[in-house]
Each structure stands twice: as structure tokens, then as C-alpha cells.
Amino acid sequence: MVLRYLGQLDDGEFEGALQELRLTRSIWTIDLAYLMSHFGVRHRFCTQTLGVDKGYKNQSFYRKHFDTEETRVNQLFAQAKSCKVLVEKCPAKYCCFAPRGHRCFCRTPDYQGHFIVLRGYNRATSSIFYNNPAYADPGMCSTSISNFEEARTSYGTDEDILFVFLDS
Hints:
three-stranded mixed beta sheet
């Protein structure tokens, strides 16, 4: 969605990047940062956890492939600097949305990890506007800032945010 917006999405190149970066169905925020780097998109990835939180091993979404994913994801964090992927342990005011339980507006109840693309906010109505790529038609959605804040600080999010800059 972001690459398409930036005019950098050719289906063949995108599929090639997915294969080169070995991205499968288990996509972590660090994978998205590597994808941005691959396409030369200026970015900054802020997280509370530089690597994988071992507590995720007991979460249903991660359980099946945790051991292989833990190794893969930790390697990505370790190699980030040399691969020109900007990752920092830092708090961010508003972060990646991955709400708890069934409040994530997704189609399957065991699907808990995903991301949204923030598009804007309205201070007067205390609303956040976003696109949800988990939908077949990821049109504009909105939620209250308080719901967004509760969701983004839920266990499992690491309060991740991937800033993507338009001057890429």
C-alpha cells in the first residue's frame, strides 16, 4: 500500500523483493522496514523491543512457528545497521495498531498480528483515520484516539511504528 502510494510498486519487482527477502505469511515490522530499504524508501522503525520478546512463544498467533521466526527475526535486527535499515529502541507518540482479541476488525479470531497505515487525525473529534490492509478493500477507516491508544499499547505490539517519509 505504501509502495503503491509512493509510485514504486511494480508487481514483478515486488514479488522478486518478497522472494529475495524471504518474506512469507509471517510478516514482522522489521520485515516491512527491510522492504522499505530494499526499495530505497527513507524510513525509521521505532520499537520497544529490539528483537523477539520470548513471551510471544505462548501467544496463539506466534506459537506454531515461534522457534524459526525467533531466530530469523533476531538475525534481521542484528544485521539491520549493515543493511541500511534504521531501527531504534524508542518510544513513539502513536504506533502500529495491533488490537487485542476480536477488536482488531479482522476476519479470523486467531489472527492478532497486523498493521495499519495511518492517514490522518481529527483533533476536534478525537479520531484517527487509517487503512487496514487486512480488508479485501482497504478503504479509509476511523477509530477514536482512546481505542487506538489502548490497541497500540496491547501486549504483542511492541508499540512498533514504521515511519515512511514521502521524500524517498
